[in-house]
Structure formats: C-alpha cells, structure tokens
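Predict fold of Ammonium transporter; 566 aa.
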Amino acid sequence: MEPTLLQTDVDPQVIADGVNLLWVLVVTFLIFFMHAGFAMLEAGQVRSKNVANQLTKNLLTWSVGVAVFFLIGAAISGFVGGDGFSLTLTAENPNAWVDWLFGAVFAMTAATIVSGAVAGRAKLRAYVGYTFVLAAVIYPVVAGMGWGTAGPLTADGALGDLIGAGFHDFAGGMIVHGMGGIAGLTAAWVLGPRMDRYNDDGSANVIPGHSLTFAVLGTLILAFGWYGFNVGTAATVFEITESGELALASFATVGRVALTTTLAMACGAIGAGLVAWLKTGKVDTLYVANGLLAGLVGITAIPDTTAWWGAFVVGGIAGAQLPIVFEFVEEYLKIDDVCAVFPVHGSAGIIGTLLFPFVAAPGVVDSVGTAFAAQVAGVAVITVWTVAATALVFGAFKAVGQARVSEEHERDGLDVSEHGVDTYPEFGQPDVATDGGHTEEIIRSDGGEPNDGRIKMVTAIVRPDRLGAIKQSLAEAGAPSLTVTNVSGRGSQPAKKGQWRGEEYTVDLHQKVKIECVVADIPAQEVVDAIREGAETGEPGDGKIFVMPVEGATQIRTGKTGPDAV
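Predicted 3D structure, encoded as tokens:
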C-alpha cells in the first residue's frame, strides 16, 4: 500500500520551522505596509505646501532607520536585554535575519511616529539625525529592557527581582507606540509651535490639514497592517512537544489576540466620536479616525491576556481620552503636536498598558497590585529614558541652529525650501497645451483695430476648479497667454464654519485663483466673454472680471514696445 502523508518520515521540526518562518515573514510585510498608512495619514494632516516634505521623511525613516538598526541597533538591543552584544551582520544562520527583520519593522514604526508631531517646521537634517539616534540607541534600549530575555523590565530582570512581576507588553503598546508618542511630544516641545499656531494672548489658531481623504485612507491602511502587528506577535505557529509531536504554540490562543484587537479598534472610533459629539455637537471625522488608531494602540500591549469585555473598556477609554488629551496638549501645554501623535500613540499606549491587570481574563493575573506596580514602573522607566534622550538630541540641533527651518522657509512651505518641489503644481484640469505663439490674423468686420489700438489688462478672480475650463475657453478665443496666481478673498460668497479635530473656525477668505491676461490684437470683450463662459456655475462666489488700460509694455527679449510687445 502506498504510504499516506501522515505515514511518511517527515521531520516535524522541519514543518514547524518552515511554517513559523513563513508566518513571521508574512506579518513582517504587513507591518512594513503600515508605512504607507503613516505616509497618507500624516500627509493628509499637514498643509499642502508641506506634503512632499512629510512623504520624504517617511521614506527616509525607513531607509535610514532600517540600515542603522541592522548595523548597530539590534546589537545594542540584545546587549541591554541580556543576550550579549552580537552584530546582526555576523549571524551564522541566514534565517536568523528573519527575526532581525521582524524586530526592525517594529523599530521603524516607533521612529516614523515622531515625524507627525514635528511636521511643518523641523529641518530634514534634524529629523534624519534623530532617526539615526533613535534606531541606533533610543529604541533598542527600550526594546532590550522590555523584551530581552533578561532585560531590566522583565520578570528575570531587576524589575522582577524588585517587585516580583515583570512588565507586560505583548506587541509594543508602550515599547513601540507609547515610546514613539512620548518622543514626538518631546520633540514638538523642543522645536516650538508652527508660526501663527498661537496668538499673543496664548489662544490657539486652527491650522487644518489639506486632505481629510488622505488621513482616513492612511487610517484604514494602518488598521489593516495592525493585524500583522498584534496577531503577528504570536510568532510561533507550531512547536514540537516532548513526545516529538507537532502542536500549536502561540497560535493556541491567537483567536483572543485577533478578537481583542478588532473590538478595541471599533470601540476607539466610537469613544472618540462620542466625546467629540458631546463637546461640539458634531461627530468629527478626524477624531473618529484618530480614535480608531488610539483604540488599536491601547490594546497593543495586552491583546493576549484581555477578556472580551476588557477590549471594549480599553478601546473605549483610549478613544474617549483622545479629544480631551489633545485639547490639554494644545490649550494648556501649548505644544503643537500636528498629527495628534501623543493622544493617539502616547497617552493611549500608556493607558492600555496600565489597564493590564484590571481587564485580564480569569486566571491570567495572580496579584492585581503587583502586576499594576510592574506596569507603572515600566511606563515610568520608558518615559524618563525617552524624554531625556529625545530632548538631548533635538536640544543639540536647536543649540546649533539646525533644528527648524527659517521663518521664510516655513512661510513658503517645506516642499519648496527643503526639496525644491511643488506637490500640486497644476491648478486645474484638464490641462490645455498652449504655445503662447502666433495666432492667425483676426479680420475685423468694422475695419478698426482691436481695443482701439491700445493694450488692456483683463483680470479675473474665479473658482480654482474652473481654471481648466477657462484655459480652454481662452485658447479657443485665441488668447492663450495668461498669468495665474493663488489668492484668497471674499465678496458675495457667504462665510462658512469649518471644524478641525472638533475646533470650529470661520472660513471667510475663500480660496480663489487670479487670472491676468494682457491683450492688444484680441478684443478685451472677447477675452471677458471667454472667461465668463468657463467660470460661470450660477452660484454666489463665481467671481468677477475687471478690464483696465495698460500704459505701456516692453518685451524683454526683443526690446519691442507697445502692442508689438504683447
């Protein structure tokens, strides 16, 4: 009889190793994809003139950070954790690098959190310099203390000897997210707020981000990757029993991790939306998105031990605290945390970590008091280390004048000043190809000269979204040359009320574009008619068109003057 699969002499250890390696790699790639979420989330919460800068920081966080963590950081983490100092590059077993990569994506998550707090004013060199230090020393020390085999915060370390219980952080609620949120808050404090963020009397001005769509898209991408973060930490699917049989390892309880992660995520969004509604009478979209992430952060330290009802508690509290803590940071601490890094990652991570013994499933915790003391001690140690190290690095950059950009560069936007690019170079669609060159001669029925032989300036203030249609109309009228400027103003269009994270602000200066078209051989009225045709929607705020005489004109290249120059 042919042997079946179960009757073959396959070494169960080979199966266990292969499946475990594959699982770790898959969840590692999921966690890496979270960087796309961070990029979109942060890009949506900054002003349009700073989008490219924020995206560049996210790209360099991964690129610089992962290289540094490979060369230095992982070895320092092992040393602090009691495993000795061993450079990753000297690994004899190539599959050992799978474990390194799994640790690296956690490290880079902690690093990229900081960029959202310092958006809009930090110099690229300062941020990249901090990323280097974080990946080399700051995060590895925290990870080694909490996750090393004999780290100071573990049951076998100094904390265990002192209290009798080790610090519990399953997937990095405090070690990764809490640490990143605290680092971001510290960096934002050292740098100071963005220009115009606060008035002379200390009151705060709202500076809305440019794309709520990007922010929500980034939120959902992060939530998807978070399953790799939490569920993936149950890294061993199979193990070999003493009798040599194949059995489930961490996967024996992986369903609890998946369940509590999902419930806390949902309750975080509900909690933040509810508090925002109670505060303002409206359910703020950005708070709901940020609350969803806060719920995930809150459960990340304890999804393996939390009862199902505990996930509701942790997620709800983590989301509900978000609007309150953000207001405290903004109004009382006067710290400009652009992307709400601390309420989302810092305070939510701390709260979830401290709730460990109170929401644990039956039989998990022997002594609530002892377990809580260990959690408090772990949070305190990580907080002190992170604040001190971050303040030292950014303080050093600030001391030599390299921490933040100049006022002129901040006004212009970091996209142009730091990278020489414009993220949104085109105003309207569709684009009309215009050569600005010679047009066919216009034969006039009255035999006269256009504009009575004079030069005229046609100026229009119109809606930005109508620019493409106006360009098309002008090209068809034979007036392809024009100048376009971004402006803001008010006229008959009524003011509106806007909200950003629950704070209301008045929008009475509306975004417009100013079109200037100087004509000589084309009747000004035809240009006016062309602009009106392209700009009209029939609603208040369509704009106005002005026609003014031009005294003279000179073409720089040829020296021609008068109508010939136009």
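Confidence is low (pLDDT under 50) at residues 427-447.
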